[in-house]
């Protein structure tokens, strides 16, 4: 340096002017990346310019990273945040007025300090893949990198799956969960003695493993049933389990309940299962290493349900189609039942007459009725049936038809002044409107002077009061609905009295009675017969006696006749118009008085040693029965015992009789004419009954039950009295306490001095033999104010 200065001074002296000299404060500088530095350039002489040049020879202009501060003979270059590219030789050049230049230079060396760039921790990898743990470290010169795991250096010799790459990263082949942990990346620059490290956490993520305990489930809809799906998951990190259906994630709700339990168990509960809940559900487990999904299937059985069945209206003679639609899982079979006769039809059936046919598929059945008849009207039942259950609904087949007249009674009879109702009865659907016509003129609903119309559903009555012959004749009833119109003609004819009955006969003639029978007259005169008039009298007398028949019966019984007497009888029919002619007169004679017929007998055992004979009077022979002669004896005796019974009685009581004995009886009826033939009867008296039977043989079931209840009640009273004296309890004790309590409460409200007083009840004692003692000994029952009861023997006994 001193030699250079001497040389410069020599030059300046020789030139005669100050020589131009340039110097930089530093000759060589080492700078780490990111640091800042400035350099000062000084010129001696008379420079007019000072310029700086970068290592590329380019003149340096001021910028953000390089700043210049220049004065007359001094210039400062500042380099901010140096980078590797800034390294090189920088020159400072001075120029004088004559254009002469001098320069000085400085060498700038830039090195990179140990720097770890964007090191992430933890670094995550998927189980089984080749993991590359990144350790991006820079420096100049290039650093030496060593990896450590669990405080031991990682070498390929001891770790076959581990390899340090050229970029200083650590490669792990087929990484497993066991490789998790903290790895240390250590970098050093031997030239500078610089060393640094960074710890990196390695996390190995294991993809989810998912399994299901049961894949298929069955349930029945609309029975408040629930089904729980269960998924078992494992993985690292713990997988997130979600449930999906039809591409949508299920969220917790009243219907869906999601639970996560320990051990990786996840459950989805589907509540209140309905038909639409059936199908596929998926369980999806997801974590950083991946996801896995399993499907579960819910089979929902649905009870058959008929969704469509409507009433049908058809026109008589046309075709009717009845549809029944049902749903369910499995799809139900549909059948039909006709309520009128219980006949059933299933798919493919066809009735014998070919009118009923059933066709169905996919939950729909159609019952077709060809040529609909009125008999088809009514209820039809549709039943949908599967192995889950059944459902039934009913519909009504309504049939519209043209009006139909219900009666063939078209001729009516009446007479002048007698009103008659001509009834036009119609069956139709829909209901028909009805009109009356006579000789092409319509009879209004209000009627005329001698006609009136009374209308009701399905019925119209024309009331006609004939006033002359013109009112008799033809009347027309017209019935009309939207299906069609029908007509019926009625004839109003003049009525007459009935013709005479005939074939009058007498039967069952006795002393006092006779039965008259006859045939109805050939003509009732157009008006129903009201009754028959039977007249009879004794032959030779003038006055007839009348007997009316009961309603229109053709048999009449004549009573109160005299025995052995000849009578005449005749019959006439009576209707609303009047009485008809009498029949031919018939003659008959009553029977003379004779002995009575044998009586009928029936027996019944009486009470004890008695026997009751029931007597039924037969033919009394024309005179009252005076008495019954009853003779009886045992089958071992010869002598008869006789008992006379008045004729008005209907029984005879035989007593006393012998036990275990057979009796023979002979009964004869007697009137004033004489005795009847005897009636024979036998009966057997049983063995003598035991005492129980004797006691209750005369009592009915009600009496026996009453005696039993009375005995039970008496026993209960005795037990209650015993409890009263011995244990101070029972119904009697409760009544005593209640009564004494009321008395004490009433007397003690205003009188405190009454407390403690006792009420004494003197009850007679009983000796051990149960007899009442006549001694004045008593038991004292003391009722205190607190309602307590104490008993003690009387002092007098002591």
UniProtKB/TrEMBL annotation:
Transmembrane segments: 695-718
Signal peptide (UniProt feature, chain positions): 1-18
Major place of residence: membrane
InterPro entries attached to this UniProt entry: FN3_dom, FN3_sf, Ig-like_dom, Ig-like_dom_sf, Ig-like_fold, Ig_I-set, Ig_sub, Ig_sub2
Statement: the UniProt record of this protein carries the keyword Disulfide bond: yes
Domain Ig-like: 20-107, 112-196, 207-297, 304-398, 403-493
Database matches in Pfam families: fn3, I-set, Ig_3
GO cellular component: plasma membrane
The UniProt record lists the keyword Transmembrane helix: yes
Domain of life according to the entry: Eukaryota
Fibronectin type-III domain span: 500-593, 595-690
Matching SMART domains: FN3 (SM00060), IG (SM00409), IGc2 (SM00408)
GO biological process: cell-cell adhesion
Subcellular location: Cell membrane
Membrane topology of this protein: Single-pass type I membrane protein
Annotated SUPFAM superfamilies: Fibronectin type III (SSF49265), Immunoglobulin (SSF48726)
Keywords (A to Z) from UniProt: Cell adhesion, Cell membrane, Disulfide bond, Glycoprotein, Immunoglobulin domain, Membrane, Phosphoprotein, Repeat, Signal, Transmembrane, Transmembrane helix
PANTHER family, per database record: FIBRONECTIN TYPE-III DOMAIN-CONTAINING PROTEIN (PTHR44170:SF56), PROTEIN SIDEKICK (PTHR44170)
Main function: May play important roles in selective fasciculation and zone-to-zone projection of the primary olfactory axons.
UniProt-recorded name of the protein: Neural cell adhesion molecule 2
Gene that produces this protein: LOC114850101
């Amino acid at each position: 340096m001193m030699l250079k200065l001497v040389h410069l001074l020599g030059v300046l002296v020789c030139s005669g002017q100050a020589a131009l000299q340039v110097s930089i404060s530093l000759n060589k500088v080492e700078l780490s990346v990111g640091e800042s530095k400035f350099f000062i350039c000084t010129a001696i002489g008379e420079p007019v310019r000072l310029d700086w040049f970068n290592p590329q020879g380019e003149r340096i202009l001021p910028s953000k990273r390089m700043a210049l501060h220049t004065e007359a003979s001094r210039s400062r270059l500042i380099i901010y945040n140096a980078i590797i590219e800034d390294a090189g030789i920088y020159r400072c050049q001075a120029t004088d007025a004559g254009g002469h230049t001098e320069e000085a230079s400085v060498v700038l060396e830039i090195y990179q300090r140990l720097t770890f760039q964007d090191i992430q921790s933890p670094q995550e990898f998927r189980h089984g893949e080749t993991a590359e743990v990144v350790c991006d470290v820079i420096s100049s010169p290039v650093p030496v990198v060593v990896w450590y795991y669990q405080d031991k250096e990682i070498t390929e010799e001891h770790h076959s799956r581990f390899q340090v790459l050229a970029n200083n990263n650590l490669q792990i082949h087929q990484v497993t969960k066991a490789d998790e942990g903290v790895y240390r990346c250590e970098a050093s620059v031997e030239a500078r003695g610089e060393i640094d490290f960074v710890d990196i956490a390695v996390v190995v993520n294991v993809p989810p493993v998912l399994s299901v305990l049961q894949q298929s489930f069955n349930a029945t809809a609309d029975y408040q049933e629930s089904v729980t799906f269960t998924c078992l998951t494992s993985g690292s990190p713990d997988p997130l389990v979600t449930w999906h259906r039809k591409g949508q994630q299920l969220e917790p709700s009243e219907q869906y309940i999601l639970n996560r339990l320990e051990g990786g168990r996840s459950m989805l509960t589907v509540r209140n299962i309905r038909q639409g809940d059936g199908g596929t559900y998926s369980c999806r487990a997801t974590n950083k290493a991946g996801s896995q999904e399993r499907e579960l299937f819910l089979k929902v059985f649905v009870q058959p349900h008929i969704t469509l069945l409507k009433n049908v209206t058809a026109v008589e003679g046309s075709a009717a189609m009845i549809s029944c639609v049902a749903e369910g899982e499995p799809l139900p079979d549909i059948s039909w039942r006709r309520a009128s006769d219980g006949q059933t039809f299933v798919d493919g059936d066809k009735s014998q007459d070919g009118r009923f046919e059933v066709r169905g598929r996919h939950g729909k059945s159609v019952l077709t009725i060809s040529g609909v008849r009125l008999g088809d009207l009514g209820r039809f039942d549709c039943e949908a049936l599967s192995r889950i259950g059944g459902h039934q609904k009913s519909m009504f087949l309504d049939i519209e038809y043209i009006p139909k007249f219900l009666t063939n009674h078209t001729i009516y009879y009446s007479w002048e002044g007698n009103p008659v109702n001509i009834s036009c009865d119609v069956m139709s659907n829909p209901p028909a409107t009805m009109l009356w016509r006579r000789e092409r003129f319509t009879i209004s609903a209000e009627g005329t002077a001698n006609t009136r119309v009374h209308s009701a559903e399905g019925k119209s009555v024309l009331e006609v009061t004939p006033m002359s012959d013109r009112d008799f004749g033809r009347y027309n009833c017209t019935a009309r609905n939207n299906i069609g119109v029908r007509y019926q003609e009625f004839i109003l004819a003049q009525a007459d009295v009935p013709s005479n009955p005939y074939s009058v006969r007498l039967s069952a003639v006795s002393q006092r009675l006779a039965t008259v029978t006859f045939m109805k007259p050939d003509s009732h005169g157009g008006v129903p017969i009201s009754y028959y008039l039977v007249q009879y009298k004794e032959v030779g007398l003038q006055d007839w006696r009348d007997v009316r028949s009961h309603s229109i019966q053709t048999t009449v019984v004549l009573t109160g006749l005299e025995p052995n007497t000849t009578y005449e009888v005749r019959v006439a029919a009576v209707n609303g118009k009047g009485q008809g002619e009498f029949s031919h007169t018939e003659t008959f004679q009553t029977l003379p008085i004779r002995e009575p017929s044998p009586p009928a007998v029936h027996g019944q055992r009486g009470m004890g040693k008695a026997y009751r004979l029931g007597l039924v009077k037969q033919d009394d022979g024309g005179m009252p029965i005076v008495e019954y002669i009853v003779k009886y004896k045992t089958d071992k005796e010869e002598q008869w015992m006789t008992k006379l019974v008045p004729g008005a009685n209907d029984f005879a009581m035989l007593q006393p009789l012998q036990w275990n004995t057979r009796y023979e009886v002979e009964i004869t009826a007697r009137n004033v004419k004489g005795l009847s033939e005897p009636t024979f009867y036998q009966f057997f008296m049983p063995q003598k009954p035991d005492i129980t039977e004797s006691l209750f043989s005369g009592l009915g079931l009600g009496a026996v039950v009453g005696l039993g209840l009375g005995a039970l009640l008496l026993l209960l009273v005795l037990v209650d009295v015993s409890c009263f004296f011995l244990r101070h309890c029972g119904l009697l004790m409760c009544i005593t306490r209640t009564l004494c309590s009321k008395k004490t409460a009433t007397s003690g409200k205003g009188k405190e001095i009454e407390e403690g007083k006792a009420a004494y009840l003197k009850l007679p004692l009983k000796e051990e033999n149960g007899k009442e003692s006549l001694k004045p000994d008593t038991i004292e029952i003391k009722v205190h104010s607190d309602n307590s009861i104490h008993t003690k023997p009387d002092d007098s006994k002591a």
